[in-house]
Amino acid sequence: MSTISTLPGITSKMIDTPRLKIHALFSGSENATPVIFIHGNASSATFWEEVMLKLPPQYRGIAPDLRGFGDTEDKLIDATRGLHDWADDLLALAQALGLKKYHLVGHSLGGMLLFTLAPLAGASIASVTLVDPGAPYGFGGTKDASGTPCADDFAGSGGGVVNPDFPKLIAARDRSSDNPQASPRVVMNSFYWKPPFKPAREEDLLSSLLSEKIGPDKYPGDSVPSPNWPNVAPGKWGPINASSPKYIGDSVKKFIAASPKPPILWVRGSDDQIVSDNSFFDLGTLGKLGFVPGWPGDAVCPPQPMVSQTRAVLDKYAAGGGKYWEKVIADTGHSPYIEKPDEFTALLVEHLRLTK
Questions:
Q1: pTM confidence score
Q2: Which of 108, 185, 206, 325 is deepest in the core (most CB within 10 A)?
Q3: What CATH number does the domain containing 246 carry?
């Protein structure tokens, strides 16, 4: 079923739901406790296979391809709903599989998604694990730990901030290293993990990256002109617009106020260059470093403090009666579960065992 090679012990299935056909990878017994693994942008369920196979036998790994990625049915993402298209898709998948109670693990965009999904799933969630999650307020266009917008139209976020060469090379299924700024292989090996690390499954993981659906209404999505630096604001379609703070709305407030509050493990790589308080994928950071002309200064558009925003939101979650633990895996980048899978899995399994 999967168009990408899978490891022995992983099963590939297409699941019919009322919303769309969702491709998912499975490990373990159908009678075991479900653990749903959610991938990030420019990747797919493939990224989770090694960790899924390391789970103890009392757990069943389930890793879907999100809408817009992998082998899941190709349907548009309505960005004006924020992250709710994905959240509703995953709730439909859980229902189709007959899941009553399950753990959630989300990486990067998939981690950001859990701030929206967890309150919607309510008592069905046994625990949440955030792995280098995108900031709860969205990616780009905000300037302090409270998620204050840099501009009223959320300029600096959305599909227009993506290097246009990157999606073009994804669409071409380019496997070269010819473009030092935009070749998918170069981006993956420079930023997904901490160089000089390269995973044994580099080719399959590159195929996973290249599975993202490309187009003006897909990735990177549309954009609109803005009078505010960097003169581009979010459009209405695709994953990058969906993760703009313009459309996140009151999801953060709902997450903080959620009841019940599942326990949260927050794991991050010590040297993450994608999600950090000085992200190399954030226009505020790039402007301050002189890579994007016309930067208006720290008062208007500083680097987005992504890690600080996550910590501030989780602190409020804890103040309201929730619990969270922050763990940093040394000498890793954006994907510590790929770079140090044994160390990551040990943290994850300990967290799962603390909850029912």
A1: 0.98
A2: 108
A3: 3.40.50.1820
